[in-house]
């Protein structure tokens, strides 16, 4: 990591270099703050390697975290970007979404070399290894490395590397998702482009398989779907904020779309009754075809998030052009 920076409550000076800082977060939990000199920032809690904030150069929060989120282990933090590993949802013997999101990660002392030039980017490398307690519920030895990067334009990149370190020669299999909660103005005014005509599994109908109809996905009730064989780019168009989120992903063929709507929201203790109106989860994932690694093998899954101004609500933006040109 680079040298320490001023307190995270201070706005960076115009000439300040990108910085990485360790500090205390809610309830004294350790977190890392990445700052880009134009003003964008990212906060990552070591508990769960959990990104809880991503702000643009104007200081606007781009991720949703519930006002009722519980920043206290062993409860996972509600919102931001939880990491689902080694199991997505309840599709297996483990607790829902696995255990990576409620374990304490460490700063990686020896991160692997990355092929991209990182000289103009601010990043932190985190590491999770299995514990004896983990072995009791998931009997595999692994190393999970995560690099969180804040690009010069304020883009947020997350690169996961999972390696099988089993000494007994046994392979293991896992599913995975970046469970990203985006902040939106009004869920009823949001549309998602890039998933039209694709097959999906509907979690609200016993994961029955359907084909998406229509030109875009809009929201008027609870949604919990796993879209299959998805493109590398997906766009969320927020009419009211005139903002488009572009999700780019690699090594993650699926995409989960989730909003709990009113009834489900009220059943979640760590979620405000009306907060469903201001969030949308689009999750880059590997679910339908689980990842299998032999000892020594490594899997890599990456997502890059960017927020760009759009004039879609005045009919001037072609969302497909955004997808193709971003």
TrEMBL record:
SUPFAM superfamilies, from UniProt? Galactose mutarotase-like (SSF74650)
**Family matches, as InterPro entries:** Aldose_1/G6P_1-epimerase (IPR008183), G6P_1-epimerase (IPR025532), Gal_mutarotase_sf_dom (IPR011013), GH-type_carb-bd (IPR014718)
Q: Which CDD domains match?
A: D-hex-6-P-epi_like
Q: Which Gene3D superfamilies match?
A: 2.70.98.10
Protein name, entry field: glucose-6-phosphate 1-epimerase
What EC number(s) does its UniProt record assign? 5.1.3.15
Which sites are catalytic? 179, 283
Coiled-coil annotated spans: none
- Per its UniProt entry, what is the enzyme's top EC class, as one word? isomerase
Task: Give the classification, highest ranks.
Answer: Eukaryota, Viridiplantae, Streptophyta, Embryophyta, Tracheophyta
Q: Name the source organism.
A: Salvia divinorum
Q: What is stated as this protein's family in its record?
A: Belongs to the glucose-6-phosphate 1-epimerase family.
Q: Name one GO molecular function term.
A: glucose-6-phosphate 1-epimerase activity
Please provide the record's keywords in A-Z order.
Answer: Isomerase
This enzyme catalyses:
alpha-D-glucose 6-phosphate = beta-D-glucose 6-phosphate
Domain of life of the native organism: Eukaryota
